[in-house]
Design brief:
Radius of gyration: 20 Å
Distance between the termini: 22 Å
Structural class: alpha/beta
Helix content: 25-40%
Oligomer: single chain
Number of strands: 18
Largest sheet: 7 strands, mixed
Order of helices and strands: EEEHEEEHEEEEHHEHEHEHEHEHEHEHE
Shape: globular
Length: 361
């Protein structure tokens, strides 16, 4: 029997979100029905509401979530009812050219549920990133569920489903930060602070946080930054070089997604260093760099998709580190709210007042 639950829906571009009754089907083959316990309020959800992803309204928002599997469809073997899971938006197919080359974190044919969730009048919903977790229950492909230790707080664990994983992975997986490295992170929101936490986990010797907001820089120190630079007051390239013996950082993570900050990242790295772009630019943005500088500096210019993570590998490990007290996921949770407070949380996020507002259901 279909399930009627409450969910947060964006009906049209720029319109305020509203609580609607959502009809969620029972899971079909390869699908899972998940009772959502917590879901973080991510910038991507705001991009959906603003029409910045596509125009397939109405959207069922929410994607950075954890919960309990309630039911599974035919053929599902990796998860079972009662499992505590983190939802992910890149359920690998195992068959595409990336997967067959042993690089499943680049999977080009990721899975989503085949059935559609709807409004009560039958209008089909587009779930954010194929998840739609600002709802009491959601329907996903079973591969989007990663079983983890149920001792973890749902509010903290769910953040690995998107922003925190993106930042951690940008440093560890994409950037390859290792012990003794110098690292600079430009942009100290949730993703940037997660990159800082990842650099600390990997054993970086110096971690430089760059932002224009002193409050965010103070948060960055809490996640492991050894030095901070307010780029409203100081040239960040010169400051990073000064803090690294005049050389530049081994790895620079750009967590904003703007041409001017990417250029700063490019010039703030050491020779043969690495730049990692994890901030998401808009389609109109362009960057111009001297090709001789690209050649002469060597190293790598990389983009990080979802922290180049493999959920089945990374989520359980990171949850274990959290439970051991080695990864402060709780520190990313600025507040817990109800479903009816999502619109207000978007405003707080835009004003930089929170790292993450988390909806508890």
């Amino acid at each position: 029997m279909p399930h009627e639950v409450r969910g947060v829906v964006a009906r049209s571009k720029g319109a305020q979100v509203a609580i609607e009754t959502i009809v969620v089907p029972d899971p079909g083959p390869g699908e899972a029905l998940v009772q959502v316990q917590s879901c973080g309020v991510c910038h991507t959800d705001l991009h959906y509401r603003e029409g910045g992803i596509n125009d397939e309204f109405p959207f069922l928002l929410g994607h950075e979530a954890a919960g309990v599997v309630e039911a599974v469809g035919d053929g599902v073997t990796d998860v079972a009812p009662g499992d505590f899971v983190i939802l992910n938006w890149r359920a690998v197919c195992g068959q595409c050219r990336a997967c067959l080359r042993g690089r499943p974190w680049y999977c080009f044919a990721t899975h989503n549920a085949a059935q559609k969730m709807t409004l009560t009048d039958g209008t089909e919903l587009s779930p954010a990133l194929g998840i739609g977790a600002f709802a009491e229950k959601t329907l996903v492909h079973a591969g989007q569920c990663t079983k983890v230790n149920p001792a973890a707080s749902p509010a903290a664990a769910g953040l690995l489903g998107c922003g925190v994983m993106a930042g951690l992975g940008a440093a560890i997986n994409t950037g390859g930060v290792t012990r003794g490295d110098s690292v600079a992170v430009i942009g100290c929101g949730g993703v940037g602070d997660a990159a800082i936490a990842g650099a600390r986990l990997a054993g970086a010797a110096k971690i430089i946080a760059v932002d224009i907001d002193d409050r965010k820089l103070e948060w960055a120190r809490g996640f492991g930054a050894t030095d901070t630079v307010n780029s409203r007051e100081t040239d960040p390239v010169e400051a990073i070089r000064e803090l690294t013996g005049g050389h530049g950082a081994d790895v620079v993570v750009e967590a904003i997604g703007r041409p001017e900050t990417y250029e700063q990242a490019f010039y703030a790295r050491d020779l043969a260093g690495t730049v990692v772009l994890v901030g998401v630019p808009t389609p109109d943005m362009k960057i111009e760099l001297p090709l001789l500088e690209v050649f002469g500096r060597g190293g790598s210019l990389k983009s990080s998709w979802y922290g180049d993570c493999l959920p089945s590998r990374d989520f359980p490990m990171l949850v274990d580190l959290y439970l051991q007290g080695r990864l402060d996921l709780d520190g990313f949770v600025s507040e817990t709210i109800g479903l009816d407070e999502v619109e207000e949380a978007f405003g707080k996020m835009e004003r930089g007042e929170v790292l993450r507002s988390v909806v508890n259901l």
